Amino acid sequence: MEALLLIIALLPGCLCAVTVSVPPKVEIEIGQEAILKCTPKFSGSPKYSIEWSLLDQEGSRVRIATYNDGSTSVDHGTDFTSRVAIRSDNSLVIKDVRVKDEGTFICRVTSASEGSGEGSTELKVYVTPAAPELTVNAQLLSITEVIASEVGTCISRNSYPAPTIEWYRNQEPLNAKNEKGTELYATSRTTTEASGLYTVSSTLFLKPQKEDVDAVFSCKAIFPLPGGHTSQMESKVFKLNLHYYTENVSFMSSPNDLIKEGDTVTLRCEGDGNPAPTYLMQKMKENAEGEELPSGSDGVYVFQNISRHNSGSYRCEALDFDSPEDVELVKHLNLFVHYLNPVTVIPGEEEVKRSLKEDVQLFCSCDGSEKPNLIWKKGNVVLSETSRYRLKDLSYSDSGVYTCEANVPSVPGLHKEQNITIVVEGPPELDMENHQVEVEAEGHPVTLSCKAKGNPVPKITWNQPDLKASESVSDLEVVSEVSFKFNSKTMNDISCSAENHLGMKKKEFVLSLYVAPSIAPAEEQKGGSSTAIIAVVVCVLLLLLVVALFYFLQKKGKLACGRSEKQPLAQDPASAELAVELKSEKRNDQRGLLGGGGGGTAAEC
Ligand SMILES: *[C@@H]1O[C@H](CO)[C@@H](O)[C@H](O)[C@H]1NC(C)=O
Ligand SMILES: *[C@@H]1O[C@H](CO)[C@@H](O)[C@H](O)[C@H]1NC(C)=O
Ligand SMILES: *[C@@H]1O[C@H](CO)[C@@H](O)[C@H](O)[C@H]1NC(C)=O
């Protein structure tokens, strides 16, 4: 009996030489095509049949498809009827895999000569969930609460197998336990949908700390993937809606330093309570109740165009009645506004008039919260890096706007300036060229021009009012021109004058008819007068000759006149008298000769 049993037990080993190898597990994502391999091994090469079946819930086999003698057939009435086939390599192909397809598949191979064998494989199906959905508890959470409060719920829908949900604070896992506690825990629930997919929800409870104010929370669904991998999907992040009292108050200005007049300055008072407290902002007054800043109750006060009067001490109080007594809710702040007074300039007038060649001394001064640097500029050119600038020997080009700038280097942008305009004035200067004009003939056109310079620009007038003048002014120069037809009877004396309040200049024109160098009858008169001049010159020369002769004779006949006149002067009065007589006589003679021409030269001897 025992031996028989042994033989039976050994039978498959010796007679059933068919071995069937199948992969132990096939993992597939939903909707894909699953291929379940089945590889029989025979000692010969016999004919065989294959039967693919599935273990149902109760553990009994349900046949799906078969192969026999070269043909395959699919069993009717199973979930797989329209989706499976047996391929030539004996594998079972399942199209469009569903969650419910998951299970144990058996490949049984039977050969008439070598018996049968089988192998089983597990089909595992995976479904990736949708992104986790988050519902946040909108209620204010208080840090004074003694037990953990509900913070939010995270739901991961429709995945297979079921995912796990984890909670994070600032991307760090919170590791919330599943048991109820006082500090931190999460409750979780898994439901199976009709589709066979799982929906998992997790609700987080925690006792918030003050540090949680800025923390961001999120949940992640972590789900398995084929091949032992996992993947995860994160929810949106959220912040806790925390309620806590004010512990710290800060009070600052922006900018916080080097404030100058005209700046926009914001005072900001901030308590760290939530909800934010209201504030009382005041400017402190000596020996008096502070003056409340209007509209400062939200903790912000803006000075548009701040002024020196806004310098001083400010106080801010956070009005949080939840705060414990020992919390300091009052802060002070000192504000200093730098300023410069207007620049004063000497000379004090906006416009200073000076004459050409004069000197002007410019001086400016300025003071403020800090001592400024002063400079003088004209346009962009720096003339002096001090408060003084001296203009010597003024010329017209010195006219213009001079600016004294005050800058405080330690307070960027603190700047004041004052302009002064210098006007260099001068009397008219008239160009005297071309005042003699020759005209070819009566009735010919003539143009006369008058060019004058001065400041103020001179006004040019012509003495003959019926002459039409055309005028052009450039810079400080004016040119006036008149044109007319020459008429010797009426146009003998033409003049222009240039005038401003500093003076007047006149230019007289001499107009004459041009004389050709031929002897025309009209020129006899002129020729006559020149012969007369020649005659006079000849007479004068003759007279001079006579004088020279007379002088020579006197020198030869008597003694040298220097001695004869001077020696007796010193010795005896009689001879001195004679000398005087001689001298006067001689003079008279000379006068007579020269016809009273006033020639004192000869008397020098
Ligand atoms: C608030 O005040 C507490 C105690 O005075 C201090 O420890 C903490 O650093 C302060 N927090 C801030 C943000 O200033
Ligand atoms: C700023 O205030 C000053 C007087 O304090 C005033 O002269 C100036 O015009 C103001 N500027 C602006 C831009 O309002
Ligand atoms: C001074 O004059 C300059 C140039 O003419 C001008 O740009 C500037 O605005 C003036 N400054 C004042 C204060 O009038």
From TrEMBL:
Bilayer topology term: Single-pass type I membrane protein
Subcellular locations according to the entry: Membrane
Keyword ATP-binding attached: no
InterPro entries cross-referenced by the UniProt entry: CD80_C2-set, Ig-like_dom, Ig-like_dom_sf, Ig-like_fold, Ig_sub, Ig_sub2, Ig_V-set, Surface_Rcpt/Adhesion_Mol
Chief location bin: membrane
One GO MF term: laminin receptor activity
Ig-like domain boundaries: 12-124, 132-221, 247-318, 324-421, 428-512
GO cellular component: plasma membrane
Keywords: Disulfide bond, Glycoprotein, Immunoglobulin domain, Membrane, Repeat, Signal, Transmembrane, Transmembrane helix
UniProt protein name: Ig-like domain-containing protein
Lineage: Eukaryota, Metazoa, Chordata, Craniata, Vertebrata
